[in-house]
Amino acid sequence: MDWPLLRRLDDEDRRRLLAAASRHRYRRGEAIFREGDPGDSLHLIDKGHVAVQMTTPMGDVLTLAVLGPGEVFGELAAVSSAPYRTATIRSLDPTETLVISGEQFSELRRRQPSVNELLLELANARIPRLSGQLVEALYVRADKRVLRRVLALAELHGGCEVGTTIPVRQDDVAELAGTSRPTVNRALKEAEADGAVSLGRGRITIADPERLAALAR
Predict the structure, then answer these.
(1) In the chain, N or C terminus with fewer CB closer than 10 Å?
(2) N- to C-terminal Cα distance for the chain?
(3) Percentage of residues in the chain having pLDDT higher than 70
(4) What are the C-alpha distances in Å from 193 to residues 44, 63, 102, 173?
(5) Statement to judge: residues 123 and 154 lie in one domain
């Protein structure tokens, strides 16, 4: 697996870091950690997909991002002076991560200052994505948000092509789109009637990517 966070390390540092990491496995729907938990490690995703979620003051769950193989999460708590998790991470399907302790990561940063640049790049890459989703939540109709999340999930599961199957529940899509399950069900049923997707128990299959993209605009 190629993790961008490790690309600038020399072979020896990369081997040393990965050798010290421990592999953790999570069931579908399992909370890997929760907002407010103590945080002293970061995770490199090897298999599966996770949702990054926060709870609003009103008690609603807001999904900020979906991450897949090759991506990293938990790095902010590992380098912060106040090491508490700022979000909940929940697995969307069976997931495996390599866990690196905060102490190991701090030592790596001391030896390899370029890692700090990579952390900055990660943060800069996530800000536009978060801003885009906040704009969507304010100005895009719920049914359109549902279809956009389906498109994004399809890309994460090997590309949005005919036959791409997303192993996701409608409850998960509702959280990702910031809407209710009945709204998701209605939007997906309409997309299915239009020939864009095919629905099954716990999965969505892409039938016509171009039609789905058109409906999401």
Answers:
(1) C
(2) 34
(3) 93
(4) 39, 27, 50, 19
(5) no
Cα distances from 37 to residues 46, 84, 106, 201, in angstroms, run: 23, 6, 20, 33
Specify the range with the lowest mean pLDDT, choosing from 6-15, 16-25, 170-179, 191-200: 6-15
Task: Give the number of residues written for the chain.
Answer: 217
* Whether this model's pTM surpasses 0.90: no
Q: Which residues pair with 198 in a beta bridge?
A: 205
Query: Tokens 């899509």 label which residue?
Result: 173
Residues 152 and 210 in one domain: yes
Encode pLDDT of 113-149 as tens digits.
777 777 777 777 777 776 676 677 667 899 999 999 9
Cα dihedral 216, 154, 158, 195 sign:
negative
Inform me whether the pLDDT recorded for 199 exceeds 90: yes
CB neighbours of 34 closer than 8 A, spacing ≥ 6?
A: 85, 88
Contact call for residues 136 and 181 (beta carbons, < 8 A): no
- Better pLDDT: 95 or 7: 95
Distance from C-alpha of 69 to C-alpha of 175, rounded to nearest angstrom: 21
Looking at residue 88, what is its pLDDT? 93
What CATH number is associated with residue 212?
Answer: 1.10.10.10
The full DSSP string for 65-123 is EEE-TT-EE-HHHHH-SS-B-SSEEEESSSEEEEEEEHHHHHHHHHH-THHHHHHHHHH
Looking at the structure, do residues 145 and 54 belong to the same domain, yes or no?
A: no
| Last residue of one domain, picked from the residues 90, 105, 138 | 138
